[in-house]
Amino acid sequence: MFTVTDAAKTQLVKNLEGSSAEAIRVALQKSGCSGYKYYIDFCDQVNDRVEILLESPIMVVADKEILPYLQNVTLDYIQDGINRMFKFSNPDAKAECGCGESFML
After folding, report:
1. Using 50, 70 and 90 to split pLDDT, how confident is the model at 94?
2. Spatial contact of 4 and 12, defined as CB atoms under 8 Å apart
3. DSSP 8-state symbol, 69
4. Would you kindly state where each structural domain of the chain is located, as residue ranges?
5. CA-based max dimension of the chain
6. Is the CATH number of domain 3-89 3.40.50.300?
């Protein structure tokens, strides 16, 4: 199950305001020294290639082929001093690179 914290929901709503996108897309790309990294982007059109992960207060979707990589993942929005960012936590990751950018399952 993919989880979005209240802090992340609030920030995602702010990010989508003023955009023509229908939803926020959670995606996966090859990156870093450990293999993959999660990222978020705008989704201009929700279609049958995506799975809806969250409908309210904002629609969050992901391509169906990456759903196995989203099991037990939590998306949070953290503030540390003046730094603010979205953070993906995956307790099933077998390894992470030293900088925390990428992971391996």
Report:
1. low
2. yes
3. G
4. 3-89
5. 41
6. no
